[in-house]
UniProtKB/TrEMBL annotation:
<comment type="function">
    <text>Required for the insertion and/or proper folding and/or complex formation of integral membrane proteins into the membrane. Involved in integration of membrane proteins that insert both dependently and independently of the Sec translocase complex, as well as at least some lipoproteins. Aids folding of multispanning membrane proteins.</text>
</comment>
<keyword id="KW-1133">Transmembrane helix</keyword>
<dbReference type="GO" id="GO:0015031">
    <property type="term" value="P:protein transport"/>
</dbReference>
<feature type="domain" description="Membrane insertase YidC/Oxa/ALB C-terminal">
    <location>
        <begin position="389"/>
        <end position="568"/>
    </location>
</feature>
<keyword id="KW-0472">Membrane</keyword>
<dbReference type="InterPro" id="IPR001708">
    <property type="entry name" value="YidC/ALB3/OXA1/COX18"/>
</dbReference>
<comment type="similarity">
    <text>Belongs to the OXA1/ALB3/YidC family. Type 1 subfamily.</text>
</comment>
<keyword id="KW-0143">Chaperone</keyword>
<feature type="region of interest" description="Disordered">
    <location>
        <begin position="35"/>
        <end position="92"/>
    </location>
</feature>
<dbReference type="GO" id="GO:0005886">
    <property type="term" value="C:plasma membrane"/>
</dbReference>
<comment type="subunit">
    <text>Interacts with the Sec translocase complex via SecD. Specifically interacts with transmembrane segments of nascent integral membrane proteins during membrane integration.</text>
</comment>
<feature type="transmembrane region" description="Helical">
    <location>
        <begin position="532"/>
        <end position="552"/>
    </location>
</feature>
<protein>
    <recommendedName>
        <fullName>Membrane protein insertase YidC</fullName>
    </recommendedName>
</protein>
<feature type="transmembrane region" description="Helical">
    <location>
        <begin position="389"/>
        <end position="408"/>
    </location>
</feature>
<dbReference type="GO" id="GO:0051205">
    <property type="term" value="P:protein insertion into membrane"/>
</dbReference>
<feature type="transmembrane region" description="Helical">
    <location>
        <begin position="495"/>
        <end position="512"/>
    </location>
</feature>
<dbReference type="Pfam" id="PF02096">
    <property type="entry name" value="60KD_IMP"/>
</dbReference>
Length: 582
């Protein structure tokens, strides 16, 4: 009986956990689905180019300081607002770049990324032939990447300056691994800056290099900056039991050492606590479900990271994040390169850490990361073997059952012994039913005399619960499973079953499993709860990703087969169902 009660408490705990996640979802701030960025209706409002607050040179970290935290963020640059209200880039100002992974529009005004489509990444399962546009300069999902230089003395090219380009069309040709897109800017003082984007095959990494030539007679102090600026977005049709993180993440250098830790701050929290941090190395990123825009300075560069609210015309709740690098003095007649790396794309775990240390942490599995990471590793290798994520989940379930076989056998043996004690326990209930304290004492005396631990059957269930929750987060957060088909009607394992067939199968298999494990020591109330539970959980699982319900259905079917096999062994030992009813 205690075993059953403990199992019920475990089930209630899991349900409460996901109900709490649902509450967070219901009361979280509204955000706009990135996928709707592709719906360019005439009602959309074009946004200005992000004109007003160019970082000043004073906000750059000093190359001589110790890199400790400084409380200064980007400052408005005086006298730079005349060209502010430019509309969305016109076709005459566009540079079009196509690689095997990206379809990019660069604006010659600022030399900035204004549109980035992820080729082969569908906007939704209903629109499999329409690429998702992550960077977009139109409503309602405004999200652009700006960059430039700030300088002392003569003006430097920022995200409002006009560049010239040799060509308007670039395409990564067969046999090429990289392609460079140069844009040039000059001033009357003798300074020349060439802004060079480098795109690579089979990669969402974008190299950004400012080649600075000082042909003036005086030294020139400059700093490079990168800024992502976006509107909030709403995840429509999201699974309601876990709100995906939306905000800023950065790789924070720990005080007094060379180690780093991953930190985040939500879109809402930035209004109350803006990010202002000076350090060496690391990165800063705009994070949303499945996708990321990251700015990664060189690991030895001293930079100031910032994250703060930044209003968008005719929209509320905009915010920006990025960095400004340390001042660099370029001698008269000298040249230098200021480099950084951008990553604009899905959070593919095999690419992120190769781009920058710690970038893979943006795939956030929460407090069970230590379990979820190995689970994903195994799942990924199974997928490489069979080529289908659904089949990989089934094989993973089989492996998990194999690992926990001995624990399951212990659980079933404990339940079998409990059935053997049932007549004696029933006698105790009849004798001491009105005195619960005395009844508990007599039951514990019986357990001690027979050398039986009533919780022995519960620990296997308890041990497997973290695995179940970890797998939930793997299916929830891994972009590799986004829109991944299984077979027949299941064409997206990361979304709920559209016809509720798997939840029904889950309910039926759970009911059959209960029939095998029916405990004669349950009172009528517990029996009613156990009868209702398959129906309640089937309804509950109707909102879960189909991949998770597939795992649980497979787990139930394997458990039924496992129980049948173990009970046959127990019958042979005189501990099974036959012994319990003899």
């Amino acid at each position: 009986m205690e075993n059953i009660r403990f199992g019920l408490l475990c089930a209630v705990a899991v349900i409460c956990f996901f109900l709490y996640q649902a509450w967070q979802h219901d009361y979280a701030p509204t955000q706009a689905d990135a996928t709707s960025a592709n719906n360019q209706s005439t009602a959309q409002q074009d946004y200005a180019a992000g004109e007003d607050d160019v970082p000043s040179l004073e906000s750059a970290p000093s190359a001589e300081n110790d890199g400790g935290p400084e409380q200064r963020g980007p400052q408005a640059s005086a006298g730079e607002r005349g060209a502010d209200n430019a509309p969305v880039v016109s076709q005459a100002d566009q540079i079009h770049v196509v690689t095997d992974k990206l379809d990019v529009i660069i604006d010659t005004r600022g030399g900035d990324l204004r549109k980035v489509e992820l080729r082969g990444v569908p906007v939704s399962s209903e629109q499999p032939d329409t690429n998702l546009r992550l960077i977009n300069d139109s409503a309602p999902n405004f999200f652009i990447a700006q960059s430039g230089l700030v300088a002392a003395g003569a003006k430097a090219p920022d995200h409002r300056s006009r560049y010239s380009a040799e060509r308007k069309e670039y395409e990564l040709a067969d046999g090429e691994d990289t392609i460079e897109v140069p844009l040039t800017w000059t001033n009357d003082a003798g300074h020349q800056v060439t802004k060079v984007y480098t795109f690579s095959r089979d990669s969402y990494r974008i190299g950004l290099r400012h080649e600075v030539v000082n042909n003036a007679s005086d030294d020139w102090k400059v700093s490079q900056y990168v800024r992502f600026w976006r509107a909030p977005y709403e995840i429509t049709g999201d699974v309601p039991f876990a709100q995906a993180f939306f905000g800023v993440g950065w790789y924070n250098r720990k005080d007094g050492g060379d180690s780093y830790s991953y930190k985040t701050e939500s879109h809402d929290d930035l209004a109350e606590s803006p990010l202002e941090l000076t350090q060496q190395g690391g990165w800063v990123a705009m994070i949303q479900h499945y996708f990321i825009g990251a700015a990664i300075p060189p690991p030895d560069a001293k930079v100031r990271f910032f994250g703060q609210p930044k209003d968008i015309p005719n929209a509320a709740g905009g915010f920006a994040t990025g960095f400004i690098g340390a001042q660099q003095s370029i001698a008269a007649g000298a040249r230098t390169n200021l480099e950084t790396t951008l990553f604009v794309g899905p959070k593919l775990q095999d690419q992120l850490d190769a781009v920058a240390p710690g970038l893979g942490l943006t795939v956030d599995y929460g407090w069970l990361t230590v379990l979820a990471k190995p689970i994903f590793w195994v799942l990924e290798h199974l997928h490489a073997l069979v080529g289908n994520w659904g089949v990989a989940i089934i094989l993973l379930t089989f492996l998990i059952k194999l690992v926990f076989y001995k624990l399951s056998e212990t659980q079933y043996r404990a339940m079998a012994r409990m059935r053997k004690f049932a007549p004696r326990m029933q006698q105790l209930k009849e004798q001491y039913g009105d005195d619960r304290q005395k009844l508990q004492a007599k039951m514990m005396e019986l357990y001690k005399k027979e050398g039986f631990n009533p919780l022995a059957g519960c620990w296997p269930m308890l041990v497997q619960m973290p695995v179940f929750i970890s797998l939930y987060w793997v299916l929830r957060e891994s972009v590799e499973l986004r829109h991944a088909p299984f077979m027949l009607w299941i064409q997206d394992l990361s979304a709920p079953d559209p016809y509720y067939i798997l939840p029904v199968v889950f309910g039926v298999t759970m009911f059959l499993q209960q029939k095998l494990t029916a405990n004669v020591t349950m009172d009528p109330m517990q029996q009613r709860i156990m009868q209702i539970m398959p129906v309640g959980l089937a309804v509950f699982f109707a909102f879960f990703p189909a991949g998770l319900v597939l795992y649980w259905c497979t787990n139930n079917l394997l458990s039924i087969g496992q129980q049948w096999y173990i009970y046959r062994k127990l019958d042979a030992e005189g501990l099974g169902h036959k012994a319990a009813h003899s």
